[in-house]
Amino acid sequence: MSHIAFQDVEVTYPGGLKALKGVTLEIPRGQFVVIVGLSGAGKSTLIRTVNSLVVPSKGDVAIDGASVTTARGAALRRMRSDIGMIFQTFNLVKRSSVLRNVLAGRLGDVPAWRGVLGTFPAADLAFAHECLARVGIPEKAFVRADALSGGQQQRVGIARALAQKPSVMLADEPVASLDPPTSHAVMSDLKRIAREDGITTIVNLHFIDMAREYADRIVGMRDGLVVFDGTPAEATDRAFEDIYGRPIDEDEDLRGA
Amino acid sequence: MPEPTPLGTPAPRAAGAPRPPLVARLRSYLGLGVVAALAVVAYQSTNFDLASLFTGAADFFSFFGRLAPDWSALRIIWRPLIETMQIAYVGTVLGTSIALPLIFLASANTALDPISMLVARVVLTILRSIPDLLWAALFVTLLAPGALPGIVALTFFTVGVLAKLGSETVESADPGPLEALRAAGAGRNRTIVYAVWPQVAATMTSFILYSFEINVRASVILGFVGAGGIGQLLYTRLNFFDYSGVGAIVAVTFVVVLAVDAVSVWARSKLI
Which is deepest, A238, B184, B217, B265, by most CB within 10 Å? Predict the structure, then answer.
């Protein structure tokens, strides 16, 4: 059975904008999927239907056969705590310490009073430190988040997601604000951890070479629809021209090698 | 270095530089005219008389002479003075603990649902439109005169002040961390504690200190309408024509208010 199943998902935003026009995808457990497409193609919307940050106006998204789309309240929060997410702008609380940011990933699992008082069990504290060690910045635990470089901040973002012990990881343009070498470092961390923990991962990217380098599977989107679905080998320049709807320049979007 | 241009001096206009359009100039003259006309109307209808200010000057200065503080009055001053500070302090603490949940209910990014958000907004709008003295007069009438109506009045007043200053701060918090915590399965309260509060804590604390400053000054005046503290003592001394006692009260209050302001300003500067 597939791990994540999109069934004819449509999203129409309140302004009337149709961001998704019927997407059906099956993603098996442990697969590392990269979604490519121009800005506005619906990549971010698609990824947000997986944890119901965007609720489809039609269709359904299910994880292990259980619908996320129809889940509400505590049931939805429980499903979300199994789905890690990292963001283009990291979305850390800048004035809080790195450790506190990582612990935020445990919030879905600790009792409410502990979450509010901030008294995490010793096991959770130890696990948060472990997550920081896995992304290579164990020494930054007590530093304020805004004192870190962009690459380090995104690693904190990954550590926060890992602290959830997720089975699904969503990454919305995780390297778009980073320089090319840092982008590659962050992408290989993400890939390595997904491999090691068997986490099903969906990453939005718009860089062709990175998509080819890290993906098990590439999904191309244009105008709210899936227009390509195949292996990196199948994702030729010709295929990308089709996804982007225009010719691709030789040096365009080829970052850091 | 060139001489700095004094404030209000228009920058020298280059020869041939375009002037503002005629309509815009007429509009600003019209505005000035309205302001002046309103001043004249108000001046006459309040029977304000500049001359009496000068004829009364002699009385004024002899009154000041009689204000020479009688320091033996300190014996009866210190207790109501402490009471004033306590009224301000308790009012600030109670007001803050009511204001914070209301602010989070009234802010679009932390509200529970549209209906409670609307209710909270209406409550806060009403609270902040009522001045401190009105609250005090109301509660002195409702409750017996003394410290209690002062505390209740300042509690409501603090809610109003904080609501005004605080809700914009909460609504302008960076939405990124809120989205991240929501995505991680955190509920509303935990999202507020982890994603919103760290962003607004310094500003909020500064606002709370600022309300305490206002409350100390307000609580001095509140005594005049019977709400306890040093103001009430000042009022009775004035009625007994005990001007040297009044002088001592004014001097001590002045020093204490100044000290509270200085400490609060210093603390706020450390926060931001």
Answer: B184
